[in-house]
Fold this protein.
Amino acid sequence: MNKNTKKRSLAARILCWGVSVLLVLVLVLTGTVYGIWHNEIHTIASIEHVRDRNDAHLDGDVYTMHVSGGFYLDEFVEQGGVRSDSELIDFITGKLTRGLLKMDMSAPDIGCASFTAKTPDGDVLFGRNYDFAKTNTCIIFTEASEGRHATISTADLQFVGVDTETGITSLMDKVLSLAAVYAPLDGINDAGVSCGIYMTYQGDKTVATNQNTDKPDFTSTTLLRLILDYADNVEEAVQIASTYDLHDSANTSYHYMVADASGKSAILEWVAGTDATDNDGSARKLVVHYNDNDSYVGEAEGNSASQWVTNFVVNPGYYDGCDPSAKKGYDRYLKLQQELTDRNGVVADEDAAMEILGMIGRRTWNNDDGNGCTVHSAVFNLTKKTMLWVSNENFDDPTAVFEFGFDK
């Protein structure tokens, strides 16, 4: 073997060794990344674009996302929750991206309405309109685990930083979408519990609820997330709400409606005094109005097993001395009351419940709060644990109508 042949052989061995070392390093790095972020990687890979935007109709893109793992919610509870959106951002950033990516979250001035009803067969239904402006939405599925329910919920992706005009177009957008699991607007769990969030415009300048006791803390959408994941029924949802201090998001105020498969429902509100005096968010207390004990709210409410809600505080006397315009959504509330009273709280099926939501949608109703469209309408069957979901009042367009359940 001559000298040149020996040199080539040595070079080949060195090259082979170098490639082997590089391959090992790549495998180790890949394994490390997967070991740290395997749930996040699976979640991102699950994101599916299920409906195209239609700007002429103010329709945003619609996506689905299946969340792998527990998304650190148990740790969120163990640490005592968070007191603000910024603390929630820090928690999500630290857990989901290990601090490598800065996220943002916000909440808007939203409209919305909900009601409960039954079918002739006794199925319990929970209907919900989400009124706002053109935006992109994501229907989110989470897994059941010990002490936790599987859930289906809807999030508005602009709250986590996804551009309303483009939707999810990059890997970065998909990473941002991971945070949407902490920002549900409505949903159902596999125990047949549903919950929704609705703005209330409380106080003469719209003051956010900001309780400050020694209880653990949650923000507006994280309350809804905790109810969906941990509540077996309405009473457990109320217990969760009463165990925490509420810190509303976006310098505004909200109330909630929750229902379960037994037909029980409740409106959860945080109030102190009247609208004119309710200007200290730290002074507010939780008040619960149950559908089977709400005759003090009104005669129609007391005579009905159904319950309905829009965007004003239903606590009696709250608007004494105020201009009638302070009761945001009162006209839609009366329309729901009329429709449910006329039907004795019974609707034929989910499609019939969806028709009622269509009656108060933004394309058929005089808009009283500046929101431009009904982003989505949903009817949850709490007995069968299913969801009928329609994008932006496209009730007659099969590509905009989706049906989901925990067995699909």
Summary: The longest strand covers residues 124-132. The radius of gyration is 24 Å. Confidence is low (pLDDT under 50) at residues 23-30.
